[in-house]
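FIELD: query
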Amino acid sequence: MKKIALIGSGGSGKSTLARKLGQKLNIEVYHLDALLWKPNWTPTPKEEQIKIQKELVIKEEWIIDGNYNGTMDIRLNAADTVVFVDISRVICAFRVVKRMIQYRGKTRPDMAEGVNERLDVDFLKWVWDYPKTKKPIVLKKLEQLANDKEVIILKSPREVQLFFDKI
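FIELD: result
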């Protein structure tokens, strides 16, 4: 495990797991939210997103957390390990609301400076709809990668903790 892609719904715990894994394995962690959002929630253009990620994945070791389905293949193809944090949407939605309250008007540790947390109903809807809209696409991608990569699917906070403890 030297090149780890962490994917999953918003609120699934990707960033927290990435941070803990980075400390435990002594591998640099890259939070895509911090790299791909500019102040005031201005998105990075797709061409720049691609460039940033292509530069990251050529490094010898990395942990990259984030979904960004449009560029996910860059990370998945370069990773030796893919961890899909597949937590229930109820837990994810709860965590997103909690995070919105906890960091409201401030920048989260896994975000770029100037990208202050806000109440975002569209994002909450995206999280709630993730199991129907995004998860099937992710599972199909992971199925295609299963022969070439270590693919780990964690379905509960307990499984996440057991995975972490086992490393």
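FIELD: remark
Helices lie at 14-25, 32-36, 46-57, 72-78, 89-102, 121-133, 135-145, 157-166.
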